[in-house]
Amino acid sequence: GGGSTSAGTAATSAGSCAFANGEAALALGYCARTGNGEQPANYATAVGGYAQAYQDNSTALGARSQAVGAGSVAVGYGANAQSDGSVAIGQGATARSSVAVGVQSLAGGLNTTAVGDRTQATGDYSVAIGNQAKATAGNSVAIGNNSVADQPNTVSVGAQGAERRVTNVAPGIAPTDAVNVSQLQESQRQAFAGVAMAVALASSKGPALGPGEKSLGAGVGYYGGNTAMAITFQGMDRTGTFGYNIGVASNTREWTVGAGVSIRWK
Fold it and tell me: What pLDDT, on the 0 to 100 scale, is given for residue 3?
C-alpha cells in the first residue's frame, strides 16, 4: 500500500508507514509494524493502527496492540503480551507471563492467569477469574467478582466483608479433602453422644461396696440433644481388698464399654 514497506520473503504491508519486516510477515494498518528495529520477526502479524509484533510468530491485532514475546498474542486496543508465548486479549489487557483475558486484565506474575475485566493475577503462579478478582500472593487463586486471594497457597471465593458460601460440596474422603456441613454435624453428634454415654456410665455406678458385696446399677446421661443409658456391674471380694466394675452405655446408634479394678489397703 502507499507509504508502506516490506522487507523479507513474502512479506506484506499495507497502510501509511506500515512496515512488514520478516519472512512471511504481515503489517496492515497505519504504522503497523513487525520486527524490532532492524531485527526481523518471521511469520509475525500486526494488524491495526500502531500495532506491533516484535518477535517471530507473534500476533498483534488491534490499534496500539503489542505482541512483544516470541509466539505471543495481543488482541484488542492497547493489549500487551510481553513474554514468549503469552496471551493478552481485551482492551488494555497485559500479560507479562501466561494469559490475560478481559478489559484491563493483568497477568503480572510468573506463569499467571487473569480472566475477566480488570482482573489481576500478580503473584507468581496465581489465578484470578471474575470481574475485578485479584490474586496477589504466590500460588493463590481468586474466583468470582471482586474476590481477593492475598495469602500464598490459598483459594478465595470472596473478600473480607463480602464472603461467599461454597455449595454442592461432596463429603471429603482423603485426609486433605474439605469437609461439608453434614460431615461436621455428624462429627458433632458423635462427640455429644460420647459425652452423654460417659455421663450415663458415671451415673450408673453405685455407692462403695463392703467385703463380698456386689451391685448392678443403671444410669442416664444427656448432652447436646443426645440421650444415653448405661448399666454397670460392680463387686468387692470377701476380704475387701479387690474391687472391680464393668459397664456398658449406648444411645441406640453407638455404644461404649468401660471396666476398672481397685485395690485397697491400710
Answer: 80
